[in-house]
Design goal:
Blueprint: E1 5-10, H1 19-23, E2 30-35, E3 38-43, E4 46-52, H2 58-68, E5 72-76, H3 88-108, E6 113-117, H4 124-137, E7 142-146, E8 148-149, E9 152-153, H5 160-168, E10 172-176, H6 191-210, H7 213-216, E11 221-224, H8 231-244, H9 255-259, E12 263-265, H10 271-281, E13 286-287, H11 303-306, H12 313-327, H13 338-341
Parallel strand pairs: 1-5, 5-6, 6-7, 7-10, 10-11, 11-12, 12-13
Antiparallel strand pairs: 2-3, 3-4, 8-9
Helix pairs in contact: 3-4, 4-5, 6-8
Length: about 350
């Protein structure tokens, strides 16, 4: 039986302090519990997202994992909490609150969870310090970052030192869209989620390549959420632009050369689209992820992989678990028996 690792899941502490009350301003997310099993994430007095206890309760998550056949979840913060817009010290406190919670959760259930942290990217020095703490003190497996920092793309010069240290420390970076482009044109129909996020992700990926960041730091480990958004499908157009505008070139090779370094989660819902992603970037560059526990998540995790015809058992094992461990620099032997012995444990856990 193949091990199933859900690389893309989000979590938030149940006891989430009111940073708006402490620091002022209306952009801080707060958690307004509506019942014992649900809450609203509030921003500026409005409901940003309705959530259930799945988003904070490890017991509930493990029950869902056992029911849906998931051995391990990789936990990452909810992007609305990045708070890159805030004062660096306040944002650091927000990041540390979540990093400590995620570290405590995976330490309590080391066979079921792996943790990713967050850092205040608006200040590179502070971000590097917190990345150091996450990786070397808390023993988290990587860092989740947003697709832009206060409207600056990821090729902003002030982020160069951050990427340098991420490469030097071999820190896996999970890039998730937030503060998406064209927000004034996407409020209707929830296009922010279905159009804005994929476009935002494509811009982030293209910025890292075209600017020369990936050429300068060739060993950076980067995975993009949501199957890379629209990036895989506009990559030939980026190559064409590189070809016809030599005066704009900042890299030795065309964009597709550097894109081969990227990883992508599998959250695109469609077997045909998944096959394209695999053929374009390789079977070893796609990682199963569901976006648990939100409405747009894939149920059950790995469903799109299961629906691809003619996949060998070895390829399925790569997509469903081995690629995640490889990306996260985790030895397979550390979890080698999980698929056989971890399922069915939820009934032994008492709330």
């Amino acid at each position: 039986m193949e091990m199933r690792i859900d690389f893309h899941t989000h979590i938030i502490p149940k006891e989430f302090p009111d940073f708006a009350e402490k620091y002022g301003g209306d952009r801080w997310p707060t958690l307004d519990q509506t019942c014992t099993c649900g809450a609203n994430i509030m921003v500026a007095g409005k409901v940003f997202r309705e959530v259930t206890d799945q988003v904070w309760c490890p017991h509930k998550r493990i029950q869902d994992m056992d029911r849906e056949g998931v051995d391990i979840q990789v936990l990452s913060p909810i992007p609305v909490t990045f708070s890159y817009w805030a004062d660096k010290e306040a944002a650091l406190e927000m990041a540390q609150l979540q990093n400590n919670f995620i570290a405590d959760t995976f330490k309590e259930y080391p066979n079921r969870f792996i943790g990713l942290g967050t850092v205040p990217l608006q200040d590179t020095v502070v971000a590097i310090q917190e990345m150091d703490r996450c990786m070397h003190d808390l023993k988290l497996a990587g860092i989740e970052i947003g697709t832009n920092v206060n409207g600056e793309n990821l090729d902003s010069p002030h982020l160069t030192e951050f990427f340098k240290m991420a490469e030097e420390w071999n820190v896996p970076l999970f890039i998730h869209p937030w503060e998406t482009m064209a927000k004034d044109r996407t409020p209707r129909h929830n296009f922010m989620y279905t159009i804005g996020m994929p476009s935002e992700t494509a811009l982030a990926a293209a910025s890292l390549i075209w600017s020369g960041v990936m050429e300068k730091f060739p060993n950076l480990k980067i995975c993009f959420a949501h199957g890379g958004g629209s990036f895989p499908y506009i990559l030939p157009r980026l190559d064409k632009g590189w070809e016809v505008w030599p005066h704009l070139r900042l890299t030795t090779h065309p964009p597709s050369h550097y894109a081969k370094k990227f990883y992508f989660d599998s959250l695109n819902y469609d077997a045909l689209t998944m096959k394209y992603l695999i053929e374009r970037f390789g079977i070893d560059k796609v990682i199963m992820g569901s976006d648990y526990p939100f409405l747009l998540r894939e149920i059950a995790p790995g469903k799109v992989v299961d629906e691809i015809e003619d996949l060998s058992d070895s390829d399925k094992k790569l997509l469903l678990g081995k690629n995640a461990l490889e990306f996260l620099n985790i030895k397979e032997t550390d979890y080698g028996t999980k698929a056989d012995d971890s399922r069915g444990k939820a009934e032994t856990i008492r709330s």
